[in-house]
Structures are given as structure tokens and as C-alpha cells.
């Protein structure tokens, strides 16, 4: 991998010409996802990451290390294989901790086309609580249906951690990393974003509810057990989060407030 100390321009049209239509669409959607994270204020300068599999391969796309999320375009995304080798010329490196986390998930979760990881104050605050996410809101109901935890081992630079992260995640779609942040792993970029929106909102509500100091009402177990059926009913899908339903509207919002991700 090649590290750089300053942003260098790319040639957007040349990237589109070198990839399949399916990969280009994935690049556009992933760049949009990055910009939506920035738009909602969930970014952490340049230090978190979202990846998406290149359709029909085990390779994945991830952010160029050094760009803010609101700057990312379809062409600037870096394509790497599971070993972290860049597969197309790029003046940018990738975040080494991001590589550890995302390659770990993509190695074993072939259903996870997109992996999204953020460090938000509310997410880290809940991750630092021994009981983790509590069943306090309708949003938490959807998350608790498929939630796992992976204990903090420091900045994710040790590749030996990958096996432990894989085991802890299992088949879950949501992962809370105590003292660290939040992660979603879903079959589409739209689902990964909607999953994170739901998890982030559940964390915000939990912190706000706890700040009032009053006794809290927990959602009963019998309702929690029916969460998957409720997701299917609300989102009109038998699997995933139903992210395809709000995704076109999210892109319209992005086109108004931060266009240019399709470059």
C-alpha cells in the first residue's frame, strides 16, 4: 500500500471506464453512504470506514485514507482484495484499522455486502455501559433482534483479533464494540445505512432517557421476540432492514445538500 501526506487529484472519468456497470453502481451508492454519514453528523474526521463488496467478487471498496466523508466520490474509493492489496491505481492508502475490521467481516460473512462502522458520542456512550443497549425504544427493538458485542482490544491493528471479532459477530447484523463504537453488516448498502440509523437513534434515545434520572420502562420480552415480524411488516421485506424503501429519498436529500458523490 502507498501512503500519501496530501490529497492528490484523481481522474473520475477514467475509473468509470475501467469497471463494470455493477461495480460503478456500488461505488456510487457507497460514496452516497459516506456523504450521508457526514450529513447526519456521524463522521469522526477521517477515522471511521464503510466498505462494500465488488459484485461477484471477494474484493471490496473502502474510503481513501485522508479524505473527509463529505468529499468522497465514486471514483476516489479504493478497491482492495482480502489481503489488503490495492487492485487499481490510487494515490491514497487505506486505514489500517479499517482494513482489519472490514476484511475480518468480509472473509466470513459472504451475506454482508456492506459493513459500516462509526464512532458517535451516543454510540460510544452506550457501548461503555455494562448492560449495553437496553430495550427502551421501538428502535432498540429492531436492533436487539440481531445484536452482538465484541470486547475492546485497543486500536484494531492486530490481525490476530480478526478471528475473535468474527466469532463474536457470528450471524448478527448489528455489533456494539464496547469503548469503541458501532457496526452494521447487511446484504446491501441501503440496509447497512438504515440499520445504522436505527442503532444510532436507539443509542441517542437511551442516553437521553437515562439523563432524566427517572425509572425506565423496558419493552417486554414477548414484544422483543416478535421484532423480526414487525420489521417485515413495516419495511415490506422478508429479509434485511428494508433499506431500499427510504434509499431513493435519501439520495434525493443528498442531491440537494451535498451533490457530487457520483463523480
From TrEMBL:
InterPro entries: Aldolase-II_Adducin_sf, Aldolase_II/adducin_N, Aldolase_II/adducin_N_sf. It comes from the Bacteria. GO terms for biological process: monosaccharide metabolic process. Transmembrane segments: none annotated. Residues 28-207 form the Class II aldolase/adducin N-terminal domain. One of its GO terms (cellular component) is cytoskeleton. It holds the Pfam family Aldolase_II. Belongs to the aldolase class II family. This is Aldolase class 2 protein. It comes from Pseudomonas tohonis.
